[in-house]
Amino acid sequence: MIKGCIFDLDGVIVDTAKYHYLAWKRLANELGFEFTEKDNERLKGVSRMKSLEILLEIGNKKFDEETKLKLAEKKNGWYVEYISKMDESEILDGVKAFLTELREKGIKISLGSVSKNAMTILKNINLLPYFDAVIDGTKVANAKPDPEVFLKAAEELKLKPEECCVFEDAVAGIEAARRANMKVIGVGSPEILGDADKVIDTFKGVTIDILNF
Ligand code: B16
Ligand code: MG
């Protein structure tokens, strides 16, 4: 029986992929190459430094470690500027109603994101009070598909992994949930998220019944 739900942030609760895209594109353009929305798909659910590696591979650029850290910092500065303007209106359809129902029925709720900016976003969109635990990029050493982020969430909720269900929009996240021995519901397209136990395209109309496996 499912006693806890773990939510990814980017692409599940809010669509921050568009802000990551704008910031990465700005960096690519500054370095003299193009970066498309299709390229951006490869960065979803991937850590900041790994994302930079992929971006530089696309632009065929090589830099030493110190420069790479500076580039990642630069991109993050722009990203932080974009997300500072976020508010409740950016919460994706149906998310708040679903979180409300889960709380009413006693299901525990945790965040499971590898973003180091997750706390800022949760505060800006006023969703922090819904969460019993928040595991983000500041608390884990290994990014998805490593299961660390979800296992830590279960631990903090004081639940066994098999009592938890993960909601994820990225292939790396689905793999991480599987490796954590949790149920996983994909949020997005079934063609991309086929390895999930179930796939929904939005939280609109979703009720607690979705947790019956
Ligand atoms: P930051 P999630 C991930 O968040 C994003 O999907 C990914 O695109 C991003 O690079 C990563 O967080 C790191 O984010 O640069 O803010 O630390 O999907 O795990 O919520
Ligand atoms: Mg995501």
UniProtKB/TrEMBL annotation:
<feature type="binding site">
    <location>
        <position position="144"/>
    </location>
    <ligand>
        <name>substrate</name>
    </ligand>
</feature>
<feature type="binding site">
    <location>
        <begin position="43"/>
        <end position="48"/>
    </location>
    <ligand>
        <name>substrate</name>
    </ligand>
</feature>
<feature type="binding site">
    <location>
        <position position="169"/>
    </location>
    <ligand>
        <name>Mg(2+)</name>
    </ligand>
</feature>
<keyword id="KW-0413">Isomerase</keyword>
<keyword id="KW-0119">Carbohydrate metabolism</keyword>
<feature type="site" description="Important for catalytic activity and assists the phosphoryl transfer reaction to Asp8 by balancing charge and orienting the reacting groups">
    <location>
        <position position="144"/>
    </location>
</feature>
<dbReference type="InterPro" id="IPR006439">
    <property type="entry name" value="HAD-SF_hydro_IA"/>
</dbReference>
<dbReference type="InterPro" id="IPR023214">
    <property type="entry name" value="HAD_sf"/>
</dbReference>
<feature type="active site" description="Proton donor/acceptor">
    <location>
        <position position="10"/>
    </location>
</feature>
<feature type="binding site">
    <location>
        <position position="8"/>
    </location>
    <ligand>
        <name>Mg(2+)</name>
    </ligand>
</feature>
<dbReference type="InterPro" id="IPR010972">
    <property type="entry name" value="Beta-PGM"/>
</dbReference>
<dbReference type="InterPro" id="IPR010976">
    <property type="entry name" value="B-phosphoglucomutase_hydrolase"/>
</dbReference>
<feature type="binding site">
    <location>
        <position position="10"/>
    </location>
    <ligand>
        <name>Mg(2+)</name>
    </ligand>
</feature>
<feature type="binding site">
    <location>
        <begin position="113"/>
        <end position="117"/>
    </location>
    <ligand>
        <name>substrate</name>
    </ligand>
</feature>
<protein>
    <recommendedName>
        <fullName>Beta-phosphoglucomutase</fullName>
        <ecNumber>5.4.2.6</ecNumber>
    </recommendedName>
</protein>
<dbReference type="GO" id="GO:0000287">
    <property type="term" value="F:magnesium ion binding"/>
</dbReference>
<dbReference type="InterPro" id="IPR023198">
    <property type="entry name" value="PGP-like_dom2"/>
</dbReference>
<dbReference type="GO" id="GO:0008801">
    <property type="term" value="F:beta-phosphoglucomutase activity"/>
</dbReference>
<keyword id="KW-0479">Metal-binding</keyword>
<feature type="site" description="Important for catalytic activity and assists the phosphoryl transfer reaction to Asp8 by balancing charge and orienting the reacting groups">
    <location>
        <position position="113"/>
    </location>
</feature>
<dbReference type="GO" id="GO:0005975">
    <property type="term" value="P:carbohydrate metabolic process"/>
</dbReference>
<feature type="binding site">
    <location>
        <position position="24"/>
    </location>
    <ligand>
        <name>substrate</name>
    </ligand>
</feature>
<dbReference type="InterPro" id="IPR051600">
    <property type="entry name" value="Beta-PGM-like"/>
</dbReference>
<feature type="binding site">
    <location>
        <begin position="8"/>
        <end position="10"/>
    </location>
    <ligand>
        <name>substrate</name>
    </ligand>
</feature>
<feature type="binding site">
    <location>
        <position position="75"/>
    </location>
    <ligand>
        <name>substrate</name>
    </ligand>
</feature>
<dbReference type="InterPro" id="IPR036412">
    <property type="entry name" value="HAD-like_sf"/>
</dbReference>
<keyword id="KW-0460">Magnesium</keyword>
<dbReference type="Pfam" id="PF00702">
    <property type="entry name" value="Hydrolase"/>
</dbReference>
<feature type="active site" description="Nucleophile">
    <location>
        <position position="8"/>
    </location>
</feature>
<feature type="binding site">
    <location>
        <position position="51"/>
    </location>
    <ligand>
        <name>substrate</name>
    </ligand>
</feature>
<feature type="binding site">
    <location>
        <position position="168"/>
    </location>
    <ligand>
        <name>Mg(2+)</name>
    </ligand>
</feature>
<keyword id="KW-0597">Phosphoprotein</keyword>
<comment type="similarity">
    <text>Belongs to the HAD-like hydrolase superfamily. CbbY/CbbZ/Gph/YieH family.</text>
</comment>
